[in-house]
Amino acid sequence: MISVTWQTYLIASFVLLGIYYAAVLLLYAKKTGKPLLGGKEKPQTHKPQGKAHNEDSKQSAAPADDQPPATPAPLVVAAQNLVDELQAFADAAGKDSMSKEELQSGVKQILAKYPGMAGTDLREGISALIVVTLENSCAVHLNDIEVSELWQ
């Protein structure tokens, strides 16, 4: 008769469970392409499949349903310029201890240089950046109404 102690049973159980979970995690990581412990994701590579790929490539370069529409390159450049100018203004205003009204006037003048930004999806992000930048650099808080007035 085979005699197994509780200690031997528990050790064997934990070792087998560890091997099982390691195998499941490795298979999951391999299937999804995501790393287990940080690092970069493996690029998804799909090879074209006959006619279906040819038909898809002939269609216009419309964005996929699950992805947001791409922002045009000139708009991105303009947004970056706007952000850089706002940050430089906020840094200078913080050093000069400008009043809230002076800050609002300066930001409004900067936004007036970029009239195309008001009607884009980037407006909300830029507004949030204005609030955070002015709070950090100048210790001035703007509420939603004040930020909305800056765009007018």
3D structure, described in words:
This protein is mainly α and 152 residues long. It folds into two domains: 1-36; 73-150, no CATH class. Helix content is 64%, strand content 0%. It is built from six helices and no strands. The longest helix is centred in the N-terminal third of the chain and has 27 residues, at 6-32. The radius of gyration is 28 Å and the shape is elongated.
Shape: elongated
Structural class: mainly alpha
Mean pLDDT equals 76
Give a count of the beta strands, DSSP E runs of length 2 or more: 0
Low-pLDDT parts are 50-62
The proportion of strand residues reads under 5%
Sequence of secondary-structure elements: HHHHHH
Q: Largest sheet at a glance?
A: none
| Annotation field: number of helices | 6
Helix coverage percent? 55-70%
Region (Disordered): 37-74
Transmembrane segments: 6-28
Biased composition (Low complexity): 61-74
Keywords: Membrane, Transmembrane, Transmembrane helix
